[in-house]
Specification:
Oligomer: single chain
Helix content: 55-70%
Distance between the termini: 27 Å
Mean pLDDT: 84
Shape: globular
Strand content: under 5%
Largest sheet: 2 strands, parallel
Number of helices: 14
Length: 300
C-alpha cells in the first residue's frame, strides 16, 4: 500500500526546525495512511481565465491546452499559409508545422513504400487496424518530400526559441536517437556524431527547463526522469527531488500527484542535508517563476 503525505505535513525546512527534526517528523508521518488525493489549492485560476479574464491574485495559474495541430483533409493544403505565418515570426505556426512534419516523417513516401509497409504488418493480429492507420497517415502526408519532413526540427526549434511552451515541451518526446536519424541521413564520423548528439541533449534540457518554468507538467516530468537517472548535470538527485515536489504542487490530476508523492517519499531519505538544501532552493526559485509566468500546461 502506498502512503502519501499531505502538503501541510512538516516535511520540509522552516525557520524554526532543523533538517534533522524534519527527517524525524517524516518518519512519524510516514507511519500514517492518508487519503490518496491532492489537497485543495488556490493556485489555479478558473478555466474561464483561459478566455482572457484577468488573473486575480499572484498565486493563480491559467490552464493552457495545446492547440489542435492535426488538420482535416491533407496537410499540404494548409502548409503554404502556415509557412507564410512562420516567416513572419508566428511561433504557433512554426509549432503547427513542426508537429505535422514530425508526424509525417515516418509515413510512406510513395505507393511502393506504402505497399511494402502494408506487407510488413499483414500477419499482425491487429493488422486491419494498423493498416488503416498507415493508410490514413499516408494520405494525410501526401505531397511532402523527405527533405521537407526532415525540416520539422528547424520549425520546432524556431518556435521554442520564440518562447512557445508547446514547442519547448515537445522536446520531451524527442530522443537523441530519433534526432540523429531524422537530421543526419549521411553517416557521420564518431566525433561528429557525439558532438551533434550532445549538442541536441543540451538544447533539449534548456528548452525543457524553459517550459517547466512556464508550468509545463510534461517538461517537469521529463526533467525529473532525466535528473533522476543522472543523465544531465550535477546535483541531479537534488534537482529530481525538487521537481517532483513542483509537480505535486501544480498538478490538478490526483493520479499524477499520487505518483510523484510516492517518488518524493522514496527519494527523501536518500538525500544528504546539503542536497536537501539545494533541492529546497531550486523548488522555491522555480515555483516563484511559475507563479510569475501565471500558466499551467497540463500533461495530455
Amino acid at each position: 500500500m502506498y502512503i502519501y503525505f499531505s502538503q501541510e505535513s512538516a516535511i520540509f525546512a522552516t525557520n524554526s526546525e532543523s533538517l534533522n527534526d524534519i527527517k524525524t517528523t517524516q518518519k512519524v508521518v510516514a507511519q500514517v495512511s492518508m487519503t490518496a488525493t491532492k489537497p485543495d489549492t488556490s493556485l489555479l485560476a478558473d478555466e474561464s481565465a483561459e478566455q482572457g479574464s484577468e488573473v486575480n491574485g499572484s498565486r493563480e495559474l491559467i490552464i493552457k491546452n495545446a492547440p489542435k495541430w492535426h488538420f482535416d483533409g491533407v496537410f499540404i493544403d494548409y502548409f503554404t499559409e502556415l509557412k507564410q505565418r512562420a516567416e513572419q515570426g508566428d511561433a504557433e505556426a512554426n509549432y503547427l508545422i513542426a508537429q505535422n512534419l514530425k508526424y509525417c516523417f515516418n509515413a510512406p513516401l510513395d505507393e511502393q513504400a506504402l505497399e511494402e509497409k502494408l506487407a510488413e504488418i499483414y500477419e499482425f493480429s491487429d493488422a486491419g487496424d494498423i493498416q488503416s492507420r498507415v493508410l490514413d497517415k499516408y494520405e494525410y502526408c501526401q505531397g511532402l518530400d523527405l527533405a521537407t519532413r526532415r525540416s520539422f526540427y528547424s520549425y520546432l526549434a524556431e518556435a521554442a526559441e520564440n518562447g512557445s511552451a508547446y514547442a519547448q515541451q515537445t522536446f520531451a518526446g524527442l530522443t537523441p536517437e530519433f534526432y540523429m536519424k531524422s537530421q543526419f541521413p549521411e553517416k557521420l564520423s564518431r566525433a561528429e556524431f557525439i558532438k551533434n548528439r550532445d549538442s541536441f541533449k543540451e538544447r533539449k534540457t534548456v528548452f525543457l527547463e524553459q517550459a517547466a518554468k512556464q508550468g509545463s507538467e510534461q517538461a517537469l516530468m521529463s526533467l525529473a526522469s532525466m535528473y533522476y537517472s543522472e543523465q544531465v548535470g550535477e546535483h541531479s538527485a537534488a534537482k529530481a527531488y525538487a521537481i517532483n515536489r513542483l509537480i505535486m504542487e501544480i498538478t490538478q490530476n490526483n493520479d499524477v500527484y499520487n505518483r510523484y508523492a510516492w517518488f518524493e517519499q522514496r527519494q527523501y531519505p536518500t538525500l544528504s542535508d546539503d542536497e536537501l538544501s539545494i533541492a529546497n532552493n531550486l523548488y522555491d526559485q522555480w515555483l516563484l517563476q511559475i507563479k510569475q509566468n501565471g500558466t499551467l500546461y497540463p500533461k495530455n
